[in-house]
Amino acid sequence: MGQCGITSSKTVLVFLNLIFWAAAGILCYVGAYVFITYDDYDHFFEDVYTLTPAVTIIAVGALLFIIGLIGCCATVRESRCGLATFVVILLLVFMTEVSVVVLGYVYRAKVEKEVNVSIKKVYDEYDGTNSNAQSRAIDYIQRQLQCCGIHNYSDWQNTRWYEQSKNNSTPISCCNTNFGGCTGSLTHPEDLYQEVMRTLNVDWCLNIFCMLGMLCACVVLCRRPRGPAYELLITGGTYA
């Protein structure tokens, strides 16, 4: 029964490490996608709004790959040192995630306010020119995510750019590519992207994986080493 539990735990650990690798691959792909699809390479390394998130995503993907590699090697080799390291890493990740979730819940109103203020500040600095970092970042995001504004296209009516342009329109990056004659005019809102910026909450999913990984690693880690006495007991042999 004990051996069956250890085998099952090792199988689950290998599966979880494969999930870590898959997540790492997806994150690295997303980060690399920003580099590949960015169409203004002359200013790319000046644009902290696009470069910083892309580099951060790739770094997180690389970290997940390393965690998965440590866990997989330690599981296959049944290395006590490796498994202990894997458990500590998962524990740190779990504690960090829990702290972020708790703090985010306690200060959610303040966080939402600060995020909205920061985003609105970027939108207020939009001027529609290629020399402006905020403009390049917003145009890129709206084209790639096929969205218009933070919630919808009406958000642009509260921006400085809209008040100064006085043409009752949104940026061209809001135009749905399926409509060739789109000029961004609000008189034809059906020509604009209707999607909104969305976020994906993966905190609880990652926490579940961390808890399961720590549990399985501890099961394998706590197995008693099989010495000569154990082998003699199983085989019915005697000491020489």
UniProtKB/TrEMBL annotation:
Positions of transmembrane segments: 12-36, 48-71, 83-107, 204-222
Source organism, top-level taxon: Eukaryota
Keyword Nucleotide-binding annotated: no
InterPro entries in the cross-refs: Tetraspanin/Peripherin, Tetraspanin_animals, Tetraspanin_CS, Tetraspanin_EC2_sf
Subcellular location: Membrane
SUPFAM superfamilies membership: Tetraspanin (SSF48652)
Family, similarity comment: Belongs to the tetraspanin (TM4SF) family.
Function: Regulates the proliferation and migration of oligodendrocytes, a process essential for normal myelination and repair.
The entry's keywords: Disulfide bond, Glycoprotein, Membrane, Transmembrane, Transmembrane helix
Subunit architecture: Interacts with claudin-11/CLDN11 and integrins.
Membrane topology: Multi-pass membrane protein
Record flagged with keyword Lipoprotein: no
GO CC terms in record: plasma membrane
Protein name, per record: Tetraspanin
Cystine residue pairs: 147-182
